[in-house]
Design brief:
Blueprint (H helix, E strand, L loop, with lengths): L15 H7 L6 E7 L2 E7 L13 H15 L9 H20 L1
Antiparallel strand pairs: 1-2
Length: 102
């Protein structure tokens, strides 16, 4: 069991090994529960979940920017059902393959 002290301001330092094991970072929030002479600190999960995804490629960034421009100009299309959307996506894929083949 790890040991720690409370300072004059009521702050308690959680040992580094425990912080790493629990994935705690600066600003972490806790739920406090007092049961007789026992104090329990329960970490409150952050609402922001970090996902470590690979960086976007140049072509992915370009597609995102094109999508943003298209959306801003209201050239987006609303599909009535998933089949329509899939047909449109397959058509776009074929057009892209043909452009790339040239």
């Amino acid at each position: 069991m790890a040991k720690t002290k409370m300072d004059e301001n009521g702050k308690v330092q959680i040992p580094l090994q425990t912080r790493k094991k629990l994935g705690l970072q600066s600003g972490a929030e806790f739920e406090l529960k007092q049961d007789d002479n026992v104090l329990v600190l329960k970490p409150i999960p952050s609402k922001k979940s970090k996902v470590n995804s690979p960086p976007l490629s140049a072509s992915e960034k370009k597609e995102i920017e094109e999508s943003k421009r298209e959306f801003a100009t209201q050239k987006t299309r609303i599909y009535d059902n998933a089949a329509e959307l899939l047909d449109a996506l397959h058509g776009e894929r074929e057009e892209h393959k043909q452009r790339m083949a040239k």
